Amino acid sequence: MLRRPRRNRKSSVVRAMVEETTLSPSELIYPVFITEGENKTVEIPSMPGIHRYTVDKLLDEIHTCMELGVRTFALFPQITEELKDSYAKESHNMNGLYIKAIRKIKEQLPDACLMTDVAMDPYSSDGHDGLVKNGQILNDETLEILGRMALAQARAGADIIGPSDMMDGRIGYLRNLLDDEGFINVSIMAYTAKYASAFYGPFRDALESAPKFGDKKTYQMNPANSREALIEADLDFEEGADFLMVKPALLYLDIIKLLNQNFDLPIAAYNVSGEYAMIKAASRNGWLNGEKAMAEALLSIKRAGAKIILTYFAKEYAQLKKNLG
Ligand SMILES: NCc1[nH]cc(CCC(=O)O)c1CC(=O)O
Ligand SMILES: [Mg+2]
Fold this sequence. Notes:
This protein has helices spanning about 10-20, 55-65, 95-110, 145-155, 170-180, 200-205, 225-240, 255-260, 275-285, 290-305, 315-325; strands at about 30-35, 40-45, 50-55, 70-75, 115, 130-135, 135, 160, 185-195, 245, 265-270, 310. It is an alpha/beta fold. Helix 3 links the parallel strand 4 and strand 5 (about 115). Magnesium ion binds near residues 168, 232, 235 and 236. GO terms for molecular function: porphobilinogen synthase activity; zinc ion binding. One of its GO terms (cellular component) is cytosol.
């Protein structure tokens, strides 16, 4: 046998030398949940290890993560039911929970990079991402609300906005609006290929944001489709996106690869709540090694072509890396 592939696996030194894929905490974005009040951290039952934080507590959490090398955070608000309405008015309240939180974090921890969420669902009494009329989710009519939301966030100090409803024309509309208002340096991460997935369940528990009727299949993509992702990516690229995202991640590695091969923008992947919960549940049952499963899952997303990973494992992964030296 002239060819013995095992020779390149013979020791940890050789294995490390030939290793093709590496992942650093600086490539991770940590999604975090903000709730009203003070001095509270509430664990989300379907997401073991993940909490809703009041702003004071969130500052500590962000600080800890930054020391571990995780420096970008995707913020999501849990809005009390009384503040929800069909127009998501609370989303651009400059004195509301979310906008105040952005301002406070940027004030206290200016080096933290904040990605803010531009979508109606956390604030909508319908639990949908867009304006609802006669049971229909409206596309264009929602833009004005998203615009107000994005500007409020930019004014509060957002570094990256993430229009997560992923409907049509979001990127171009928001890019123009931000530019007109002087926010040329606020980046946009497009939720380019976001699928109508069953794996968002725990996230909707965290925000209590499940749709009150129907599902999201008229706006999110059909899990059966991949070529459509190229159309979505073309549009987001042309409209000025800075990053193209695929969501979920682990079940959509082929889509990550497809976009990475066809576009020169950095590709991000959202390792979603249900993907997190699956690994946590199995490891809590002693059915697999949670740390190893986490590291392998994240590495596979990177190997597929994602440069950036949004993951609830961000802090735990960074801790593991630090412990391993
Ligand atoms: N704007 C919707 C939104 N923003 C983030 C997530 C899911 C994230 C996750 O599951 O981790 C979703 C999905 C949805 O409810 O349709
Ligand atoms: Mg699109």
